[in-house]
Amino acid sequence: MSILGVGTDIVQMPRIDDIYKKFGDRFLHKNFHKLEIQEFERLQENKKKSFLAKRFAGKEAVSKAFGTGIGKNISFKDIAIVNNEFGAPVVKIFSKTLPEIAAFNIHISLSDDYPVALAFVIISV
Fold first, then answer.
1. If DSSP codes are grouped into helix, strand and coil, which group holds residue 123?
2. What secondary structure letter does DSSP report for 94?
3. CA distance 17 to 86
4. pLDDT in tens, the chain (125 residues)
5. Backbone phi, then psi, for 5, in 5-degree steps?
6. The Cα angle at residue 65 between residues 61 and 67, in degrees rounded to 5
């Protein structure tokens, strides 16, 4: 295994919650993949703030690990962070401009301790 990149990000949960309260579905559909939105809608209300903040941090960490950042090559919506059958987060990439990204192994860890959410990503080949 060879490490291609490492990325991390930290997000203030109240900031993400304020943005969601202000823009609602527009914020969701601009920044989150439909798989994430489906998962979000099934959550209890008290888990939604943490869910959005951790995934937002996760998307930033993934883009940093690839060395691209969020921009013309990959957008927030191109990155989906969903839970596997055991509840662990898994990253799926849906980029049309960087289809070769799907060939990499993306390892992600998400955590939160109010008021912060943290994501750590390692990309290997």
1. strand
2. -
3. 26
4. 799 899 999 999 999 999 999 999 999 999 999 999 999 999 999 999 999 999 999 999 999 998 888 887 788 999 999 999 999 999 998 877 666 666 789 999 999 999 999 999 999 98
5. -170, 160
6. 115
Q: Report how far residue 100's alpha carbon sits from residue 81's, in angstroms, rounded to the nearest whole number.
A: 18
Homologous superfamily, domain 3-124:
4'-phosphopantetheinyl transferase domain (3.90.470.20)
| Rounded Cα distance, 99 and 87, in Å | 26
How would you classify the pairing of strands 89-93 and 79-83?
antiparallel
User: Domain limits of the chain?
Assistant: 3-124
Place of tokens 């839970």: 83
How far is 107 from 21, CA to CA, in rounded Å? 30
Phi, psi angle pair for 115, to nearest 5°:
-100, 20
Q: Rounded distance, CA 84 to CA 125, Å?
A: 21
Positive or negative, the Cα torsion across 54, 16, 33, 69? negative
Q: What is the pLDDT of residue 100?
A: 66
Query: Contact 34/94 with Cβ under 8 angstroms?
Result: no
